[in-house]
Request: fold
Amino acid sequence: VQLQASGGGYVQVGDSLRLSCETSGGTFNGYAVGWFRQAPGKEREFVAAISRNGQMTYYSDSVKGRVIISRDNAKKAVYLQMNSLKSEDTAVYYCAAVVARSGVPRQPGAYDYWGQGTQVTVSS
Reply:
């Protein structure tokens, strides 16, 4: 499966952004999908993930309550709605897919396929 992340941009503290992860190839509803981010000089970190049927969602503590992950299996896409953005949310955001097994992993190394990333910059 191929993934392409989009929707990043330059915003102000408190603004909102909606990231999209569009996919092609593969059987989309057979994959769990996660969002990760990587800031300069830091390791890639987990942001949110969603099970293949969309019934289970997971969030990092740093974004819980501000971010919503969703998916549209008919459109083969996953979305990340980010609200009340903070300067520390500045990073390159990546979407990734993993063949659905029991549970949805949070470790980047567990994911099989990655998109190219989209830059989110939150200015104070």
User: Anything to note?
Assistant: The CA atoms of residues 62 and 97 lie 21 Å apart. The two ends are 37 Å apart (CA to CA). The mean pLDDT is 95.
